[in-house]
Amino acid sequence: MKSYRFIAVAAAAAFIALSSSLSAETPLKRSKISKAALKTENTVLRAEIDSLKSELAKYQEELYRTDSIANELLSGYDEDGNSCSAINIEYTSEVSDSLLHIWYAQKLVSEEEIDMEGTDTAAFKSNIPDSVYIRRIEQMNSFISLPYNDIVKNHIIRYSEKMPSTMGKILGLCEYYMPIFQETFDRYGLPEELMAMAIIESALNPVAVSRAGAKGMWQFMYSTAKLYGLHIDSFVDERLDPVKSADAAARYLKDAYGIFGDWNLAIASYNCGAGNVNRAIRRSGSRKFWDLWPFLPRETRGYGPAFVGALYTINYYKEHGIKPEPIQMPPHVDTFHINKMLHLKQVSELTGAPLDELKNLNPQYKHEIIPGNEREYILRIPYQYTNAFIDCEDSLYRYKSDVYFNPTTIKKIKDGGDGERIVYKVKNGDYLGKIAGKYRVSVNQIKRWNNLKSNNIRVGQRLIIYRGGKAPASKSSSGTAKPQTTAQKPAAPAQTAASGEYLIYTIQSGDTFYSIAKNYPGISAQNIMDYNGIDSSKIHPGMKIKIPLKM
Predict the structure, then answer these.
(1) Integer CA distances (angstroms), 168 to 99, 195, 209, 321, 524, in order
(2) What is the DSSP string of 476-501?
(3) How far apart are CA 170 and CA 167, in angstroms?
(4) What is d(CA 201, CA 98) in angstroms, rounded to the nearest whole number?
(5) What is the pairing mode between strands 369-371 and 341-343?
(6) pLDDT tens for each residue of 348-357
């Protein structure tokens, strides 16, 4: 595989050099060559170029056929099989799958709001001198090159000093999840330092969802998840499975390193897609991360430095007085292969295993149902309930099966689609009816999710779509607003009207989604953005948004 890459690159270099030679001769030298000789030389050179083109095409074809999925990494496919960036459909301000817009809505954001967008330009102060940071980074003996500069320093201070409570929770989760990741990354021969990327991606939240629809601890977009064999349907989303998503992330990073030959570039590509890194390489003329840094998407510029900051902190948290917070996860887990329909409540009620623990260990089952009759799935249970599971396994599947697998309920789940949030880019020839049919939604739903006043759409326009129609609903099932009632929420400024499911809020100067969400317990900033189909770049004073009364 590597030999094909080397030959292809060598052939390409020879082709470029030979092409350049056609125009490299100086006028003085050319003047001494007869017209006939020039024609002969030109014919010979062009024949050699054609030959090299043929060889290059052959080796490139063989490279992409054998070199894992290098071609897919560079171009990728969206959910329709159309070419797009590998990690994100297109890197815009809306598509930001990095660190810190994705904390646990109830456990982390409420305590320490994290906004990393200004970290690259901020000037955080610390009593620790640069020489100490530099020495500590060197003593880590990282297989991956870890630079140190003012930008990296800001991220180190952010992680190690500015968010101690959040990092305490993350470190507690590290004790549980990092051994799982280490085993996975060792299996693929990858540097174990890469495990710190899960901190940047999701703060180790297995059910994290980004504004762009990336999901899970490793924040996979739908297209990339499918590309790496993660199963997604109405019942299951394996992006939420910490084990399987880590395996997919390891394979992606191995493929990315095979393309770029540099771990810092592979890490950057995980955030913005290999296509964007390739464009930065072409624009900068260099393959060194800090040379092409100015040409990367804005969010990705902080991704590499954030990686250093997170990796530094999980190595030196004691020196900064941070203590890992204990987490309620079973220390030992047993795994069973399931080949029949099984509900987690059946397991909980017959074995005594707490339902919350079963849900935490098996977050990929979106409705607490394991559809084992369709294909084999796994069930993870705390080891102390293993014997109970074995003892009652024969009767387990029949227990309350008519309740938990009511045909109406199952059909509703299947007909509802998988609820995937899609950012769809309108193509030539598209119209709302065509798009609605493709995703099993109605035209009115698309219009409501995108605040469209008519059926007119334009090429290049982006539409928010929830596959199958499962989305936060702002209206009743009949499509008409419910009678207005008094909102049962704490009073908030500029709160004007309410329906049975939402109230209207008028944006004030200085408002952010985070500050607004604080006034409504149980509602997160992400809930508000998803409910209105907008992101933080669209907010402005005087704008009216809907605040869901419950999620």
Answers:
(1) 16, 17, 21, 10, 21
(2) -TTSSPPPP----S---TTEEEE-SS
(3) 5
(4) 5
(5) antiparallel
(6) 999 999 999 9
User: For 72-113, what is each residue's pLDDT tens digit?
Assistant: 444 433 333 333 333 333 333 333 233 223 333 333 433 343
Burial of 352 (0-12, 13-18, 19+ CB in 10 A): exposed
Query: Which amino acid, residue 521?
Result: P
What's the Cα-to-Cα distance from 77 to each of 32, 72, 299, rounded to whole Å? 54, 7, 22
CA 236-239-277 angle, 5° bins: 150
Q: What angle do CA 307, 231, 416 make, to 5 degrees?
A: 115
Q: What is the pTM of this model?
A: 0.63
CA 180/CA 245 separation, integer angstroms: 11
Q: Can you tell me the distance from the alpha carbon of 355 to that of 376, in angstroms, rounded to the nearest whole number?
A: 21
Token pair, residue 353, equals 């295993």
What Å distances lie between residue 511 and 106, 193, 494, 536, 541, CA to CA?
Answer: 20, 38, 11, 10, 8
Q: Encode burial over 198-219: b for 16+ CB neighbours within 10 A, e otherwise.
A: bbbbbbbbbbbbbbbbbbbbbb
Phi/psi of residue 335, nearest 5 degrees: -120, 135
421-425/377-382 β-pairing = unpaired
Q: pLDDT value at position 4?
A: 45
Strand ranges for 361-479 from DSSP E: 369-371, 377-382, 421-425, 462-466
Virtual torsion, Cα 535, 538, 539, 541, nearest 10 deg: -170
What's the first-to-final CA gap in the chain, in angstroms? 50
